[in-house]
Write the structure tokens for this entry.
Amino acid sequence: MTDPVTGLPLAGFWRRAGGYLIDGVLVFAISLGVRLLLGRAAGFLDSLISVAYWVAFIGARGATPGMRAVGARVVRAEDGRVPTWADAVIRWLGMALCAVTLGVGYLWVAWDGRKQGLHDHIARTLVVMDA
């Protein structure tokens, strides 16, 4: 399926879920390593690591390692360009909101016409197939 605005092929629910799973494992491994090094003092760092991971990769490259592994990337919905750092922060805040809704915001991708989750709508982003 191609996005009518950007002309880019959209990444579907299962591809996105696969990328998210890979990223989740990577964030967990990084957090576990920090916990092993710092012990109980690492509690706050777990959250900081998660935020930094998602924002840094989306803001700098438009894709996390998990997204790259499944051939997907994030673009701005209005013009298909790489998201700005502000877009990346807003998208992460939207992801936090998706978590609060027990994942319903992520499931939105399955039935949305442009394959956008709640976080994508909030940040005005799309996940497309990487060329």
Q: What stands out?
A: The chain has a mean pLDDT of 92. The beta strands are 72-76, 125-129. Helices lie at 13-38, 43-61, 65-70, 85-100, 104-111, 118-123. The chain has six helices and two strands.
